[in-house]
Amino acid sequence: MDIQALIRNVVVKVGVASVCLLVLPSCSNNWLNEEEGDCSVYYRLKFRYDRNLKWADAFANEVSSVHLYAFDTSGILTWQREEQIDPSTAENYSISLDLPAGDYRLLAWCGLRNDGGHEESFSVPEARVGETRMEQLQCALNRQHDESGAYSKERLYRLFHGTLDVSLPSNDDGGSYDYTMYLTKNTNHIRIILHHLSGEDVDVNQFTFRIEDENGLMAHDNELLEDENITYRPWKMQNGEAGLGKADSRAIIHVKGAIADLTVGRMMETHREKMFLTITNREGGIVARIPVIDHALLAKDYYEEEYNRTMTDQEFLDREDDYVMTFFLDENNKWISSYILIQSWRVVLSNVDVE
Predict the structure, then answer these.
(1) CATH class of residue range 41-185
(2) Which of 4, 100, 247, 291 has the most C-beta neighbours closer than 10 Å?
(3) What is stated as this protein's family in its record (predicted)?
């Protein structure tokens, strides 16, 4: 072979090799330039809790842990992960979805694991990949029992629920995909305050407080399932002092009121006739008995006007998680049923029946 033929042969081979390199997928060129990254596909899930009355994300301050489950299109569990959230990194928290490309329904119960200050408030069944169906991932309040039935007297840890349908794409060139799951808070703090309209002191030890409902079992879609009646008892009772103005002068007198703090499970509009607050005296006589849902909803119109947003009753109950109800007593320690404070707003009631 002469020298010119040899040169032509080399040129042809180099040209063919160059063309091959040009048509290879971009990930095949990484050995030439490692700075371009790899061909891996990353899926990450972020969480957002803005279903509150500020319409602002409070995930970092509210959520302590995540139990996340992924189900295939037939509803069978294919993957699960549990993570405790570090408060120092909660602001940018996300969880990696170590799943192959495909369609999934994600389910999250958040708040099942906490700081160990007391026993956990809620639990879910043990889940098994390839066996557990989504419908089986119900969440139950951890309740106690005595001669009167089921009860809870704990300051319940905060519980959240969320679901999301995702289609995870395949990508031969690699890439990163982010998804966001929106959460609903299921636990509610209710503070009950008793004052004498006359300005006399009220001793909290003269009263008992309880809220009853059948709301201790939540389905995978966060609907309430049939459950036994649960009595929520105060986790804290105290006497508090407040300043009251006398009608016949400008003087401010300081009187003691009775304060009881309770934490209850999910409040549902459909449980209007099931969720009741009952206050009794030491002799067992009923001081007040009211439907909690109806009275909680009395504050809804304020927020609708304040934020220029229209809400369904259930949306309001989902967004609000902290209620203050102030009752005024007459000289016989009976609730004056035409008058109540919800949050800090005076509500005058009519056609009220007190049981």
Answers:
(1) mainly beta
(2) 291
(3) Belongs to the bacteroidetes fimbrillin superfamily. FimB/Mfa2 family.
